[in-house]
Amino acid sequence: MSSRRDFILGALALTTLYGCAQRPPAETISINGAGATLPAPLYLKWFQEYNRLFPNVQVSYQPIGSVAGVKQFQAQTVDFGASDVGMTPEEMQQVARGVVMLPVTIGSIVLAYNLPGIVELKLSRATYVDLFLGKIKRWNDPLIRQDNPDLSLPDQEVFVIRRSDASGTTGIFTQHLSAISQEWRDTVGSGTAVQWVEGTIGSRGNEGVTAQVAQQVGAIGYLELTYAKQNRLPMARLQNKAGNYVMANTATVREAISTLQLPENLLGFVPDPEGANAYPIVTYSWLLLYKSYSNPAQSRALREVVNWCITEGQKFAEELGFVPLSPELVPRVQAALAQVS
How confident is the model at residue 24, as a pLDDT? Predict the structure, then answer.
């Protein structure tokens, strides 16, 4: 889509949404959502800040996982859902009210570990695939030593921590592993719930994986960057497609996501991004809205909340480990948001 068309769509969307200035509703409006745990720290911040600005708009959010969030959204027990993998066409067909998928932030999945005294671990693509295939049993394995010739690695058992619930974070992580490893693609594959190799340890939600890694010496697990940062867990420097070892940060995640041009429906993935400094495991995260709501006041309030999140709310992204939407994408999201009535 051209930048000129983006501008026109955005201008039309803003005219439709805000023919007059954003204003608080006369009555108290409650909005309930549920879904992905990956963006939950940012969502909770957004809704807290919005409530501070507009006290009569109360937005609650339950981080129950992408798959559970989609199910609640389909069952219409929530006003909006959230998912790191969006919805499939088949899932969308089950929602008679129609679905609008809105990318609202960009996250990254890191490999956090618990090895006292080891803070600069590097993992090649072959190594972290083998770790999650259960082939590497101890931390002083030759493959890990080869990646880290200057480290004194302990003779410590490896504990692989993964999600036990169906998860968008798992979907993005296994999508990446399938992209870089034929063996992974042929054995475990990708999806929000996969058949993990025997011996791995399951835990619910990004919070659960974070807690397991923090408690178990020798553990390694995949989780969203914010959870690792907030819990001060060391994260491995991962080898990207260009062969360089990179950490997840604003610059490397932005470079990775910039290689993805979202299609018309705003749903897209980049399982193994190009770029010399591109972090290899990144994703948009989507809000799921119905196209129609029975309560016009709630519908208007929801549109205004989401518009605030994708504009003013973006300033909170970086401090929480997320990357703001690009200025070019925001008008497209606003145009999609204008479909909600």
Answer: 65
pTM: 0.89
Residue 1's pLDDT band (boundaries 50, 70, 90)?
very low
pLDDT digits (tens, 9 = 90+) for 295-332: 999 999 999 999 999 999 999 999 999 999 999 999 99
**Do residues 188 and 133 lie in contact, with contact meaning Cβ atoms separated by under 8 Å?**
yes
Mean pLDDT computed over 25-35: 90
| pLDDT for res 3 | 41
